[in-house]
């Protein structure tokens, strides 16, 4: 999703075209303001009518806030006072009949009744109050302060503390008296009558006070654990919370920063590495009526002891079959009437997702849905859950191979598929009346995003957007209007509005994404092609064809980053520099292909998980098959093909140069992962498990083990303060190449760059080197 990407193209200052349309690396990388500026992050205000968005039409140092109204669709810059008073619609929490709402702003809580149109500030303190919502059957507002819940009575204005959460129990320490001290105390009491009387009175008072009824909150002790997801049921009876125990011995990495104002090298505290000890979490429910606390235990969940298939390669793991796997409680959601609670529980090994119902009346846990994936649970919409009514819960699942919408009756357990087919539901939002879903899918084409209204009762879909490309939609509060961020392959994002009805005409609001200079060059509309991979899979790609191919018939394969990302689509790419660079390469006689290899987004579960336990497997062979596709269909010289990419694309480039050295004559690996055991836990453990549990996966997936295979010319570029893929990665590979006696490689370092470059000079230097690499080695 690129809805919230601000396309300011900050790296580049003034016009590049001057008297010619000829592209150069310097022009592309040094100046982006000539391109124009796109709007981003549209949202509706609390009045339900004013549409705000970030924009920079005047080439200022940064974006400003603009707005339009139904009466005036010309974008207007928001004043300071407007920004101070602004409350985004998304931040509002409504009561069940939508007659009132509550929100937090600047650390205080505000309440408004739509019938009286009166805004009430509930709190005005130096403390920070947050997460307000309606409870006690909409009669009170509940909010959080200092990790405790408080309620404000709408009718009386009375504030009540609901929880008394403390870190540890404050028990008085027992006084350990020495033999001498005990003798002295007894002696004083025995011979001094007043002391004896006073002690007896004190003991009687303590005994009396102990038996008095106490009007105090039950203390909940966290014992040093972190409390998360503190919430109350809509009827006010139950309070739920998660306690998270930090994992011990989580060693963090250090990223040295060499170029500093002080002149001294400083250390940046970095992330942990894959395989680090993980925190553990426990889920509790406090019944305020019964004054009891109980833990939701997961050791009896269906399949909790199931181990993943890969353990069959390691006999030592078989002895763990009887252990319940640790889990994380990802989401909790109370039914509107507070009678049922749904938990989204994930196993820490990423293989299982359980959607469980806790019945408040029976205090039992019941399975509603289990999703098992021998690779890992993921895909679009896996965080979307909610209630259609008191009995019906909705969620998304990849059980069919594609992410679709489902509902389940929490009483009968009956499930219903609301969408189906070989496409993905990428976004879903329930309508105000809960009769429709507003969904964004790629049903028309994997490379398009279109917006629909889906009727829940019969599954009827009405397509609302029509423009080919990407339509990222934000629905107005009254659901009568939609704001659309729209773009096409060679046309950057602009903002449109239209009626939320089929066959409606959209009105363009912004017109600054393309400057006159930018439009003076005829940017290619890359052809969306498909070819058949060696295993029969259909691979999508973008193809840039030269008007006049160089006699050598050279070609370049571009490998997008992130792994799970889509780039062979019909909208403006986040890789806009690469898009322009590919136009430059085509101008200079190259064919360029950019594919959505295995592991990319947009093509369903099996495509997403096609790299499980072997990164550099099918994702690499897809790129090799793309090169062969160019040779077979366009006459490209098989000995004049280059490859390049950054991050994950840099990793694939290294694997290509090391393990398929006869396919690519030259390659440029940018900010590349060279050893996956150095990368972070969240991303890597999903795909490769953990190094000490699945060493086979790490060995077959890490380029450093295959460096001896290098034959062609290799360029490596890396930022020295990269906090994502650490500079250590490329240093280790450099040492390996030195030890192997390889001399056909080059390392360019960028002392002041993180993972994503920000300096125009760095971008320019990097892409000049890439262009020189291809010009020198592919046009011999």
Q: Mean pLDDT, nearest integer?
A: 92
| Sheet of most strands | 8 strands, mixed
Poorly predicted ranges (pLDDT <50, ≥5 residues)? 1-20
Task: Tell me the quaternary state.
Answer: single chain
Distance between the ends: 41 Å
Characteristics:
780 residues, 13 helices, eight-stranded mixed β-sheet, alpha+beta
Question: How does this structure look, described?
Answer:
- The chain is 18% helix and 31% strand.
- It is an alpha+beta fold and 780 residues long.
- The strands form 11 sheets. The chain has an 8-stranded mixed beta sheet with strand order 37-38-40-39-41-42-43-44, sandwiched between helices.
- The longest helix has 19 residues, at 193-211.
Task: Show the helix and strand layout.
Blueprint: H1 25-30, E1 40-44, E2 51-55, E3 64-68, E4 76-77, H2 80-85, E5 93-94, E6 100-105, E7 108-113, E8 118-121, E9 129-135, E10 140-145, E11 148-153, E12 159-161, E13 164-166, H3 179-191, H4 193-211, E14 219-221, E15 226-232, E16 238-245, E17 254-257, E18 266-269, E19 280-287, E20 292-296, E21 327-334, E22 340-347, E23 352-359, E24 364-372, E25 385-387, E26 392-397, E27 404-409, E28 415-417, E29 425-430, E30 436-441, E31 450-455, E32 461-463, E33 470-475, E34 481-488, E35 491-499, E36 507-508, H5 516-519, E37 527-532, E38 538-544, E39 555-559, H6 576-587, E40 591-595, H7 605-608, H8 618-634, E41 641-646, H9 648-659, E42 666-670, H10 681-688, H11 695-701, E43 713-719, H12 727-739, E44 745-750, H13 760-778
Parallel strand pairs: 13-14, 39-40, 39-41, 41-42, 42-43, 43-44
Antiparallel strand pairs: 1-2, 2-3, 3-4, 5-6, 6-7, 7-8, 9-10, 10-11, 11-12, 15-16, 16-19, 17-18, 19-20, 21-22, 22-23, 23-24, 25-26, 26-27, 27-28, 29-30, 30-31, 31-32, 33-34, 34-35, 35-36, 37-38, 38-40
Helix pairs in contact: 3-4
